[in-house]
Design the sequence.
């Protein structure tokens, strides 16, 4: 019977030319595994991308759609490389990840039990100077009785991985580990049979225990960052309550919701779509999306996003985007980039790990041969060779950089920063100059009324209700500032001029100063503040002009001062008018600024800074900023930026505050310092330990202690990347 495999429903269309597939891969736990898988799949013709996410063991594969490749071929290729794979499903992946954690914990428990008991049985041998040979053999056999079955079970994570690698005619880091454990146990058994004075059961089980502790700690560290992605995934609703008639609703899959549909959002429900409230009033919690901790009022005209929580009232929402088009999906995509990001230093660790296995095997073999040629017995030479294999375990080197990358990316996300480029941390750490765009970057993307305090409340309310009928962004700012609850009836819109309606026997108008007969009032406001936009309101003979502009981000001045305190120069480049740019620069204390700058002039200025030896970060949001974002050494955009700017930027920040820009610099600098420390620890350990082992001064037990200690040291040191000092306090 012919059996076929159809994985087509797991394949996503990227841009009409590229197909994308996510696979869950078992047995991936180190940098060399990642490199091996990526090289193996990238060697397949028409494959354009193969990237392993070590955090959730997910493999992203992309290939040209017009090729003859099928998803099953990638699974077959991974099987040839020694890895089992299947289509990635978040729920299944979470279940298997939990099972994997439980399995590692069971293995660790068995290994710790064996270590404690074998060490206890070894004490009489170590310190029993007058112990008879029969008693010594008895304790050795008891140790073997505990160590052999425990090692056979607890060592499975390493043995299975090594077997898969050898079956695929390759090696990974678990191959020398397995050889070292097997040789230590085998040699100890031979020593016991031959009534020798020493056996190394304690070294073997201790090695397994420390390796498992390191692997379990590494997994928990990665799970902590992955939990952020899981939290976002949990915010995604699978269904929505959609209006299928004027008074008829139906619960439908989110895939059945289209732009323009009306959905019902009840109290206590999470919104499944991005859209605009068309009816109802409530408060929403969008802290997990924007970082804003206070509940936000939601009424007609308020934008809501997928994943936000409706607190009190019932809302009707007109859908702007659903499923993959929402802000939540965009954040999730960017987070995936963050978890997959690998800097130059990670690539260095990858190369070192790939060289490790053959170098260590050769060193152990040459050590044995060298000692035999020097006159040592085969027994002593093999014991020294075992110590070399154990002491040079690559865990410290393999974990030195990925552990820091994982901890730092998770800490940066909690500070509102998403990595969108593999080497963003490395480049952000070197920044000495930050160039800001103004509109939408130093300022909030929405307009606000700046003279609201001078407008009578009753007039403001009427103007806001009338503004609800207009789609103009300046009118929308008036409606938001007035917290208008319901639109006026019978509103007539005159394109290009404004809107009007009858209320209380009077005509109300909102629009251009000319339309409302308020030219004099508008000119007065513009003479005092030329940068604002104006919208007029008339009620019979009464005239009011609203001054509207984008407000600076609430912490912009504080953030820029903090950047300068860190020795970073700050400049402002904007395509906006000179009065608006001057006002922002003066308010923020930025001495170097330019207005009415074209995209090409921005690039030229950044290139000039580079020639001066500056390392420039560009922070911008508009489509016209995309070229300068690409030209800078490192770039950053707010989540509200255009898709082109986000695609060009190396980092993206969330929320209304500018503090994530400072956090990106602080965390990157701390992460790079910790990465260098970890590489130094790993390399220094090997430079010190390997000669000692080769010289015969390290027994397998001492080698196991030294290797395990170095692995735990770099992993614990990586935890330091979670916190950085911010002035006198700390980012947490």
Sequence:
């Amino acid at each position: 019977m012919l059996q076929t495999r159809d994985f087509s429903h797991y394949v996503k269309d990227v841009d009409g030319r590229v197909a994308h597939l996510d696979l869950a891969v078992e047995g991936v736990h180190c940098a060399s595994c990642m490199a091996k898988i990526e090289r193996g799949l990238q060697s397949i013709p028409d494959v354009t991308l193969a990237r392993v996410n070590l955090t959730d063991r997910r493999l992203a594969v992309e290939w040209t759609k017009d090729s003859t490749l099928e998803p099953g071929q990638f699974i077959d290729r991974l099987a040839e490389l020694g890895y089992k794979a299947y289509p990635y499903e978040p729920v299944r992946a979470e279940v298997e990840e939990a099972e994997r954690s439980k399995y590692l914990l069971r293995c660790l428990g068995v290994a710790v039990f064996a270590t404690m008991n074998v060490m206890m049985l070894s004490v009489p041998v170590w310190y029993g100077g007058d112990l008879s040979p029969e008693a010594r053999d008895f304790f050795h056999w008891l140790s073997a009785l505990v160590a052999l079955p425990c090692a056979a079970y607890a060592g499975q994570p390493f043995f299975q991985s090594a077997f898969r690698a050898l079956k695929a005619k390759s090696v990974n880091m678990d191959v020398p580990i397995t050889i070292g454990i097997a040789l230590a146990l085998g040699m100890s058994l031979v020593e016991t049979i031959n009534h020798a004075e020493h056996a190394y059961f304690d070294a073997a089980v201790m090695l397994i225990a420390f390796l498992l502790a390191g692997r379990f700690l590494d997994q928990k560290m990665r799970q902590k960052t992955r939990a952020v992605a899981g939290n976002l995934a949990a915010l995604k609703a699978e269904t929505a309550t959609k209006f299928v008639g004027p008074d008829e609703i139906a619960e439908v899959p989110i895939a059945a919701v289209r732009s323009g549909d009306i959905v019902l959002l009840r109290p206590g429900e999470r919104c499944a779509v991005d859209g605009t409230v068309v009816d109802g009033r409530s408060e929403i919690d969008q802290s997990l999306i924007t970082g804003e901790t206070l509940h936000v009022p939601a009424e007609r005209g308020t934008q809501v996003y997928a994943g936000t929580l409706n607190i009190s009232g019932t809302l009707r929402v007109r859908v702007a985007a659903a499923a993959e088009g929402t802000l939540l999906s965009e954040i999730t995509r960017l987070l995936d980039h963050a978890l997959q990001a690998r800097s130059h230093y990670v690539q260095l660790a990858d190369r070192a790990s790939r060289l490790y296995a053959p170098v260590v095997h050769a060193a152990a073999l040459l050590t044995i041969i060298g000692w035999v040629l020097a006159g040592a017995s085969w027994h002593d030479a093999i014991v020294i060779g075992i110590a070399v294999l154990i002491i040079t375990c690559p865990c410290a080197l393999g974990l030195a950089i990925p552990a820091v990358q994982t901890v730092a990316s998770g800490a940066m996300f909690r500070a509102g920063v998403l990595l969108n480029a593999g080497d963003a941390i490395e480049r952000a750490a070197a920044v000495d100059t930050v160039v800001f765009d103004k509109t939408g970057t130093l300022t909030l993307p929405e307009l606000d009324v700046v003279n609201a305090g001078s407008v009578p409340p009753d007039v403001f309310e009427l103007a806001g209700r009338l503004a609800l009928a207009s789609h103009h962004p300046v009118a929308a700012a008036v409606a938001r500032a007035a917290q208008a609850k319901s639109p006026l009836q019978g509103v007539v819109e005159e394109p290009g001029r404004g809107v009007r309606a009858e209320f209380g026997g009077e005509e109300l108008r909102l629009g251009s100063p000319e339309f409302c007969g308020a030219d004099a009032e508008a000119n007065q406001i513009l003479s005092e503040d030329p940068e604002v936009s104006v919208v007029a309101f008339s009620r019979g003979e009464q005239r009011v002009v609203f001054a509207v502009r984008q407000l600076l981000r609430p912490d912009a001045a504080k953030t820029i001062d903090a950047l300068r305190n860190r020795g970073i120069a700050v400049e402002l480049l904007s395509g906006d008018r000179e009065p608006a740019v001057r006002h922002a620069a003066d308010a923020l204390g930025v001495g170097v600024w330019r207005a009415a700058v074209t995209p090409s002039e921005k690039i030229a200025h950044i290139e000039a800074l580079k020639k001066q030896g500056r390392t420039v970060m560009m922070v911008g949001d508009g489509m016209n900023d995309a070229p300068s974002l690409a030209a800078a050494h490192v770039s950053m955009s707010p989540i509200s930026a255009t898709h082109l700017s986000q695609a060009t930027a190396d980092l993206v920040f969330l929320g209304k505050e500018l503090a994530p820009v400072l956090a990106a610099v602080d965390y990157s600098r701390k992460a790079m310092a910790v990465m260098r420390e970890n590489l130094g620890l790993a390399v220094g350990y090997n430079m010190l330990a390997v000669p000692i082992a080769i010289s015969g001064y390290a027994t397998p037990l001492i080698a196991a202690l030294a290797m395990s200690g170095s692995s735990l040291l770099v992993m614990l040191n990586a935890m330091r990347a979670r916190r950085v000092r911010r002035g006198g306090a700390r980012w947490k």
